[in-house]
Amino acid sequence: MIKILVSDPLSDEGLKILKDVKEFQVDVKTDLKPDTLKEAIKDYDALIVRSATKVTKNILEAAAKLRVIGRAGVGLDNVDLEAATQKGVIVMNTPAGNTISTAEHTMSMILSLSRNIPQANSSMKSGEWKRSKFMGVELYGKVLGIVGFGRIGREVAKRALSFGMKVLVFDPFLSREVAQDLGIEAVGLNALLKDADYITVHTPLTDETKHMISKDQFAIMKKGVRIVNCARGGIIEEQALAEAVKEGKVAGAALDVFEQEPVSADSPLVKLDKVIMTPHLGASTEEAQVNVAVEVAEIVRDALLGRGIRNAANYPCLEAEACKILDPFIKLSEKLGKFAAQIAEGGFEELNIIYSGDILKYDLSPLTMALAKGLLSPILKETVNFINATSLAKERGINIKETKSSRDIEFVNLIQIEIKTDKEARSVAGTLSANKQPRIVKIDGYYVEVSPHGEMLMIKNWDKPGLIGSLGTLLGKHKINIAAMTFGSEIKGGKAISVLNIDSPVSTDILKQITQLENVLAAKLIKI
User: In which residue ranges of the chain is pLDDT below 70?
Assistant: First the structure.
């Protein structure tokens, strides 16, 4: 008997799918305390959670039989992915279940902003009849700027087009050709901010997207712009938004997500009449709750019955024996993709992969999946996984090419990737060290020896005396320790690349100071 524990509430439709399988024993035990869950999990083959249950390393260590974790929802911040991977537990989520629900809520917010519906309703309930006070605007002919063009962004675009709006999209992975086919326009972020009448964000919250819309961005926008956020709190800086509303730069804002939830009464947004607020209702429809329950039940059922794995966040290959050999190369591939994504500028158009060496005797599709996941994950975060990464890349017009090279090479195995964007081409190559640890050995043709992990600095510079000293002095001044450093140069005195592993983050201000050092041409902060 295969035992499944459901530790958070799940709709009856999802439970029925599992209970209809005669090989399954399904136990629903919600509101378990961590110690109780740790004791209970020993007997189960699968665990299904929503956001309440925290699947920590401590709990996973006690899970002797656990094979599968299903998350009914998108976010995986309540599951220790690394610990699950080390334990050999497949973790799957349901990124599509609340797509329509959130897209419709976004459009509801846009319409409410346009016609002052919440304010007019409140006025009438207090006994007033003030038609002139609530003069609205039409959507027809207006410009909607969509920041982030995943599943939800696409659905919002479809609905906006049906209202006769012009749609601008900023997404680093969306090609202009795909945008044209969809009847929208792919633009840079500043162009979108400058031209849009409405701006809605649909990106995950990452280090790169946190406060991506703040005081400087509001300064670019046209007077009277309207702002919507049904994605993640923290993408829009709330204090800056409040000030922009008070100043009249922003005509109105509608927010479903916040930097701190529940929202405090002290929030600068709460008392502003022109700000519409809902308590994180994007996925709160009967249909969305059923959809995620059905989806998680189906993917857990199929994984346990050997029918295939979908939406896996940490499991790109399916054959156990091949996985043992390919696992370190999978980790290398994902790190190469993440590294390349962060050094390349512009919209991604093409990913060329060249495999060489002994690995050619194996099915390399898991490595390609890992490369694509690494490439997309700095922006798409938890919405991209090993299984959907290549299809998400293709949806955005990124052409993926694989080449197997049998030529004699300098390394026993080598994975080379070439990234082409609408601005430049970059290349990165990697292999495994003697103890099977990932190593980057070439960047744009420069030979290096880089351990891709944690916080990193990549600097393009002239190969001149004094750089190491000035760089070390600057970082030391800010109490940033250099854990490792590698250099690659063309010719003596020519251009070179320096890569540093550092023990603590580098702020935007420090990064600017680095670029101002003598002989430094450019600097980037990379996080793996």
Answer: 316-323, 408
Give the pLDDT of residue 408: 59
Neighbour-count burial of 472, counting CB atoms closer than 10 A to its CB (0-12 exposed, 13-18 middle, 19+ buried): middle
Active site residue 426: no
Which residues form the domain of 51? 1-98+285-315
Kindly list the strands in the beta sheet with 2-6, ordered across the sheet, starting from the edge strand earlier in the chain. Answer: 24-28, 2-6, 46-49, 68-71, 90-92
Give the active site residue among 67, 115, 211, 280: 280
Tell me if 78 is assigned to some domain.
Answer: yes
**Catalytic residue flag (residue 232):** yes
Distance CA 430, CA 432 (A): 7
Residues 109 and 26 in one domain: no
Catalytic residue list contains 115: no
The answer as to whether 256 is a domain residue is yes
Give every CB contact of residue 86 below 8 A, 6+ residues apart in sequence: none
Could you say which of 82, 261, 424, 490 is catalytic? Answer: 261
Start-to-end CA distance of the chain, whole Å, equals 40
Burial code (b: 16+ CB inside 10 Å, e: under 16) for 378-417 equals: bbbbbbbbbbbbbebbebbbbebeeeeeeeeeeeebbbbb
Query: What's the confidence (pLDDT) of residue 390?
Result: 86
**How far is C-alpha 295 from the chain's CA centre?**
21
Q: Cα–Cα distance between 30 and 33 in angstroms, integer? A: 9
Residue 444: inside a domain: no
pLDDT digits (tens, 9 = 90+) for 45-82: 999 999 889 999 999 999 999 999 999 988 788 999 88
Number of domains within the chain: 2
Task: Give me the catalytic one of 50, 202, 232, 301.
Answer: 232
Chain centroid to Cα 420, Å, comes to: 21
188 and 62, same domain (yes or no) = no
Interval 473-491: pLDDT, tens: 999 999 999 999 998 887 7
Sign of CA dihedral 293, 383, 159, 395: negative
Q: What's 14's domain CATH number?
A: 3.40.50.720
pTM confidence score = 0.75
Of residues 18, 19, 15, 60, the one with CA closest to residue 41? 60
